[in-house]
Amino acid sequence: MADKKNAESKTEMSKEEIAKRRSEVTKFYESNIKHLKIQLEYENLLTEIEKTRVSRIQAQMFLAQTYGDNSEDAATDEGVAEAKKEFNEAAQNIKSGFRPLKTN
Fold first, then answer.
1. Any idea what DSSP says for residue 97?
2. DSSP class of 65
3. Measuring CA to CA, which residue among 21, 24, 25, 11 is closest to residue 3?
4. Which residue spans within the chain are E strands per DSSP?
5. How many Å apart are CA 93 and CA 35, to the nearest integer?
6. Which phi-psi region, left, alpha or beta, contains residue 98 (left: φ > 0; alpha: ψ -120 to 50)?
7. 31 or 68: whose pLDDT is higher?
8. φ, ψ for residue 8 (rounded to 5)?
C-alpha cells in the first residue's frame, strides 16, 4: 500500500517540482565535490606513502640478504645439532624412566 502511494506521489510531481528537485540534487553533489576531491587527494597521498614504504623495506631486505654474513647459517646449524642432541637425551631419559630437573 505504501509502495503505491510512493509511486503515485512520484508520478504526480509537476514539471516545476521535478526541476526544483533536480536542481537541489545537483547543488548537493556540487557542494560535495570539493570535499571528495580533497579526500581523493588524501587517499592518493596515503597510497603513495605506503608504496614508498614497501619499496624501502624491500630494498633494505635485499641489502641485508646480499651483504649479510653467513655466520648465521653456521649458528643455526649448531643450534639444530644441539637441539637434536637434547631431544635424543630426553628421549633416552624417558625410555629409562629417568627425568632430570632442568637446570637452566
1. T
2. H
3. 11
4. none
5. 72
6. beta
7. 31
8. -65, -40
Residue 94 near residue 100 (C-beta atoms within 8 A) = no
- Domain regions of the chain by residue span: 2-68, 70-104
- Listed in sequence order, the residues at least 6 apart from 21 whose beta carbon sits closer than 8 Å to its beta carbon are 13
Helix (H, G, I), strand (E, B) or coil at 99: coil
From CA 79, how far away is CA 93, in angstroms rounded?
21
Backbone angles phi, psi at 45, to 5 degrees: -65, -40
Sequence letter at residue 45: L
**Cell output for 27:** 547543488
pLDDT digit string, tens, across residues 18-51: 999 999 999 999 999 999 999 999 999 999 999 9
Question: Contact 68/75 with Cβ under 8 angstroms?
Answer: no
Nine-digit cell string for 13: 510531481
- What pTM was computed for the model? 0.45
Coil, strand or helix at 104:
coil
SS3 state of residue 33 = helix
